[in-house]
Design brief:
mainly alpha, Growth Hormone, Chain: A, 2 domains, 81% helix, globular
Amino acid sequence: MNWKIVLAILTMNILFMSSSYTMLIPFLPMYLTRDLGVSADAVHLWSGIVFSSTFLVSAIMAPIWGRMADTKGKRAMAMRASFLLSVSYFLGGIVQSPEQLTLMRLFQGFAAGLWPMDLAIMTLYAPPARLGFCLGLMQGVLTAGGVVGPLLGGVLAEAFGMRTSFFVAGCALFLNFLIFTFVIKEPPAPKQEKASAAGEKKTSLWKIPLIRSMMICGTLVQMVILILQPVITTYIADLAGPMDNIVFVAGFVFSLGGIAGAMAAPIWGSLGQKKGFFRTMCAGLAGAGICMILQGIPHSLCLFAIMQFTGGLFFCAIQPAINAVLASNTPPDYKGRIFGFLFAAQQCGSMAGPILGGVIATYLGMPYVFGFAGVLLLTLSLIVRNHYLIQS
């Protein structure tokens, strides 16, 4: 298949996947109280259980699915993930208790793995000179789905109820399954690299310093992204003061980072192709870290919103660069497991982030969450720069 056609199809696939997920997650507390009868006193506990259960299972299963993708086929694993995810969303629309919703989210974690398969397929189809652009565009669409999803979910929930949102998401994922079944073909691995790849299979991926560093970086960056989840809307509300439409304002300011990321990710991807992915990763980490520290300094909501947008411009440079470095340093028949490992590492970061953010905000105050996250990103920038100097 032509790589441009594959890129177009996969970007649509990613948009469906990302918007389906984010149209539901922000409204889980509302779903628990309105539809599943959870009391106001218990809703935070149940929200935490329901939210984190998927990350736990997907972190365990992602490397397994990745290894199977390299032996059974990446397209087959993408079909598996799309179909089972669609089933999980339909189940989410018919559950009657928080326990059943938790079981659904556990099943969803078992089914997960569509995003790493999209990455693995694209890295095999994309010409080496266009890899940065392809990964940047895919990251931008993933971010755009995170902006579109909550808006669409809010409209559907208001007009038809929360259960309808689950069914719409299930239909979108089932459409992805049909696309992988009847349109996308299994990407062929370059024959000239098979021999070298076979020799590298004896070496554990975790023992390769570059790959190990990228995995740790991916985990910590994901932790930073999620570390703000428990506190950012409250922080925005404190900055805004008494306002009639505070929910709308908080949602809009929160989405500015995603809007900026969707705009800038393809640009960073192309820039990484020309200047080097280590350089763009280092610049993204440093810029995002500075913006994060500035966000924690008490100031007006307007300045916070500007920093939120600016931080989004830098954040979107990081993940495509990590993906490109891993893709460029991994043999073709290892693509599935390398992105499976990365996805598992990111799920660990997703679990740790909200817990750590809540602890820091509770005992030190919300500005310290931003400070901690910013310093961590700046430290990662220095580590990545050191790797770049070693590679050079």
